Amino acid sequence: MDHYQPDIETMSRDVLGALQLQRLQWQVARCYAEAPFYRERLDAAGVRPEDIKSLDDVRRIPVVTKQQLRDEQVAHPPFGRYTVAPASAWREVHPSTGTTGIPVNTIWSERDVEHIAEFTARTMWSFGVRPGDVVQNAFSYGLWVAGMAVHYAARRLGTLCIPIGAAETPRQIWFMEQAGSTVLLATPSYALHIAEQMRLKGVDPQRLALRRGCFGGEAGTEAPATRRKIEQGLGIDAYDYYGLAEIHPTFASECEAKAGIHWAEDHHLIEVVNPDTQQPCAEGEVGVLVITHLTREATPMLRYWTNDYARLTTARCACGRTHARSEGGILGRHDDLVIYRGAKFYPVQVEKVVRGFAELSDEFRVELGRAVGGGAADTCTVVVEATSAAIDEAALRERLRQALRAELQVTPEVRFVPFGTLERTTFKAKRIVRADGG
Predict the structure, then answer these.
(1) Buried (b) or exposed (e) across 137-164, using 16+ Cβ within 10 A?
(2) In which region does residue 334 sit, left (phi positive, over 0), alpha (psi from -120 to 50) or beta (all else)?
(3) Has this prediction a pTM greater than 0.85?
(4) Residue 143 backbone dihedrals phi, psi, to 5 degrees
(5) What are the structural domains, with CATH classification, of the chain?
(6) I need a labelling partner for 152 at 20 to 30 A (CA). Which of 214, 249, 292, 410 fits?
(7) Separation of alpha carbons 409 and 345, rounded Å
(8) CA distance 359 to 416
(9) For the segment 96-123, what is each residue's pLDDT rounded down to a tens digit?
(10) 134-138 average pLDDT score
(11) H-type helices in 344-383, by residue range?
């Protein structure tokens, strides 16, 4: 397998570590000097830039949460006091896409845009995009970060980019048929919706030029049942993508080996920490991702607490890349944790089960009753759609309950609704519905 930037992607771990330390020291020093938000936090922790003498010293810096960024921007509108580059260097503003609370605005400088285009092109090359491909970019454009990042990278790679965005599903299919799109970028939910509409319209995916796609914005692509449904429904190889507005869009993806998402470690310091102790997890152990910008110029994050669960390995991938990767991708979000009858699980586990049943549509919803002591729900119902009215609903319900029990260690109720009832989305699917409206 070849590489877009072989000198960077295959450098030894020692050389990579030295580069990371140099960039970390630069970032901490400029944040301390130019950003009151960070200077106050570092002073309170008793940390000065000269104390960062090894990569392990990053743990002395307090983590920063999304809520803290929100509070900072409310107190010091509109962008808070963690902007570092001068306003004359700012080029783009992108808010977070969270459904609760005010969005967190982040800024890209010209240099940031160049870096984002660089490592996004690197990820796209890693899952097989090449000059001459026709890239159908069905990530949202505008204020959401992924659409713009892929657009810039597609140009850099020498592809034809169709900037359709996350809308107009009939036109998505038209472009696939008429323009010969070879690569699709979208959320997993939207990819499945496009595949469903193709099936309903009688479009044979095997007659399309489409050959691969990468899907992010939500977990799921690395769930075997979801990957299989995307690949069969669109006739492609499907790969996983990861990004988040506060850090960077599309900065970690699977390569053609499909052995986990590779991190762009020359631009980001990746930690996986125990959510209770905030101590580093051993390789392969699941914890919360904490990410530090090493090259971000305008609005750098020092130890951003992502709320995403993953594991980390530094073992060289079969593709030859040496940057760390997370096998299985994002395993869940702390915000989405469901507690029911003593069991804890995430929507992606329900997805794994539901999408393993050919008799069910790709859509599902988890409805939770009011929270009781410890945040546990008093009821839990998985809502699904059968693909045919002729299906024996009672027998299918029992099989589904047994499969959910095996995966979740608890048995939720199951409710069927008519096909087409559950919302199809061009963006991120909302899988959890809570009685308190959360």
Answers:
(1) bbbbbebbbbbbbbbbbbebbebbbbeb
(2) alpha
(3) yes
(4) -75, -20
(5) 1-333 (3.40.50.12780), 337-434 (3.30.300.30)
(6) 292
(7) 9
(8) 12
(9) 865 456 789 999 999 999 999 999 999 9
(10) 97
(11) 347-354
